[in-house]
Amino acid sequence: MGVANELDIYIAIKDAIIQQKLRPSMQLVEEVIAESFGVSRTPVRNVLRKLAGEKLVTVIPYKGTFVACPTVEEAKEVFEMRRVIEASGVKKVSGKLTRDQLSQLSELLDEEHSAHHNGDPLLAVRLSGNFHLKIAEFTGNNYYFRYLEELISLTYVIIALYGMSKHMHCSDHRRLMLLIEQGEAEQAERLMIEHLKEIEDTLQFEEKGTAPQTLSEVFRLANGHYASVKG
Amino acid sequence: MGVANELDIYIAIKDAIIQQKLRPSMQLVEEVIAESFGVSRTPVRNVLRKLAGEKLVTVIPYKGTFVACPTVEEAKEVFEMRRVIEASGVKKVSGKLTRDQLSQLSELLDEEHSAHHNGDPLLAVRLSGNFHLKIAEFTGNNYYFRYLEELISLTYVIIALYGMSKHMHCSDHRRLMLLIEQGEAEQAERLMIEHLKEIEDTLQFEEKGTAPQTLSEVFRLANGHYASVKG
DNA sequence: TAATCCAAGATTGGATACAATCCTAATCAA
DNA sequence: TTGATTAGGATTGTATCCAATCTTGGATTA
Known about the structure:
CATH superfamily of the largest domain in chain A: GntR ligand-binding domain-like
CATH architecture of the largest domain in chain A: Up-down Bundle
Order of helices and strands of chain A: HEHHEEHHHHHHH
Protein name (chains A, B): DNA-binding transcriptional regulator, GntR family
Distance between the termini of chain A: 21 Å
InterPro entries (chains A, B): GntR_C, TF_FadR/GntR_C, Tscrpt_reg_HTH_GntR, WH-like_DNA-bd_sf, WH_DNA-bd_sf
GO molecular function (chains A, B): DNA binding; DNA-binding transcription factor activity
Strand order of the largest sheet of chain A: 1-3-2
CATH topology of the largest domain in chain A: Four Helix Bundle (Hemerythrin (Met), subunit A)
Number of helices of chain A: 10
CATH class of the largest domain in chain A: Mainly Alpha
Helix content of chain A: 55-70%
Pfam family, one (chains A, B): GntR
Keywords (chains A, B): DNA-binding, Transcription, Transcription regulation
Strand content of chain A: under 5%
Number of strands of chain A: 3
Largest sheet of chain A: 3 strands, antiparallel
Radius of gyration of chain A: 19 Å
Oligomer: homodimer
């Protein structure tokens, strides 16, 4: 690839984080990224600041930019806010979707289903996220989408950190879509809340309880050979 | 003032927008801001991008950065999301606040009350916003605070654009605090939703219905003598 | 007159050079 | 050996220069 604009770089880094190619606490050195995209550090800095605004990375002055490493408490906050926004969102769209919108949801369900059977759990998780995002999009209110996009991106990082059981309650999505289609707003709302609680419960918070609290701690433990995009 | 760091600049611009010294659609020329803060354009650019991430300003490539000018639809989206987040927030804190937290809320109410009687409606609006923010803070979940801070900042811009009746339902806040104190979660939730709907209803969306849709339109109308921080 | 084209000014976008800061590791002394 | 000190490298932060783009206004021409 030759040069790239800021949007390309933004998408590339965000995708790399979501696909766990960049794992939590990894350092993102500006010059390395700049060279690999054929640009100077300036646009890279802009992108990293933008990602910092979405809490996907953490900028530590004069030290560097690191992929976010949410604590257990932060992870629980993410899921709590997801329940607030998604419960309201699914209630809002219930019984209000067009045939075309419903078929878009249905298509995402099919893709998620086949990703499961093809043994690609990471892809399945991302398609699951897209299902939730689509509902937010269909509310017609941009804030449902904007905030949920941020929260779902963080959910991917949380899953990268704290793992996830294989069984992803795929059937919940199907039932959710039926309730939306039938206009059962209250039931859809309750199911969404339950669904998100179940996802949160499948995370193994205690297992990696010794997960790094601070970033400096990480790199001290690794004795200088810390994880980096250079490696 | 001599030099300034990014945080100073960020706070100064944000305050200027909130206090309506910088009105919607005004252009923020990087070099002008840089000179007035004694720095180069670089940190100013960073701040403007950060504000753009919060939707307080709009960056148009190769044209400039302008104070946000929300449309009626966008304004209604802001209030809808405020209802979602604040209804959940006030329900969450009801009956859970310490004596100290309640007195913090009470103090804000007193300040708001005196700002009203001192004929400073702008200050009263800001103190009202702080009251709502404090509740979000007391949820203990950072996302309530982060998202609401963004939405309330935008509310100030919306009020600057679409005006507001003098009578601000100051008594709602008092009743809200009582319900929180007494642990009447459901009643507090309902009152918060009603309160926010009333605020939205006092906005005069139709009057300034000829409000500028696009920024370029604004400056065409003014025939070159457009509003600017230079002026 | 009216429309088109071009040039100049203003502003932002990006690349580069340098300053500030942090971390590491070697050196030295107790 | 252990601790403090310091020099070097690595990385980010800032300033400055130039390029890209947009807008305006005047000149030119039909």
